[in-house]
# Entry
Amino acid sequence: MTAAIAPALTQFRSILLRVLKTLVLVVLVALPEAALAQNFSADACKFISNIRDLLAIASISVIAIAIVFAGYQIVVAHKRWAEVAPVLISGILISAATQVGTWLLSHGGGVKNCANALLFGMAGHIA
# Structure
C-alpha cells in the first residue's frame, strides 16, 4: 500500500464501523423483540415485509422525482435532453436497484410459512 492510500483506507474503515454500529443500534431499538429473541420468526417476516414495501415505494419515488426534475429542467431552464440524461439514467439505475432488492425479499412460490419462504426465496435468487 502506498502512503497516500493508507489514511483513506483507515478513514473508510472507521466510517464503515460507525455505520455498522449505528445500524445495529437502530435495529435493536426498532425491534426489541428481535433483541430478546421472542417470536422472532413472525417479527422478522413483518420487518422484511415492511422493508420490501419501503423499497417498492422508494423505487417509484426516485424515478418520479427524476422525471419531474428533468421535465422542469427542459421546460423552465431550457435544457437539452443531453443535459438532463445523466439525471434520468441515474434515476432509472437507482430505481432498478431498489426493485432488485424488492425481488430478493419477495416470498418463494407457494410456501405458506414466512420464514421458510424467506429462506427458500433467497436461496432461489442466489442459486
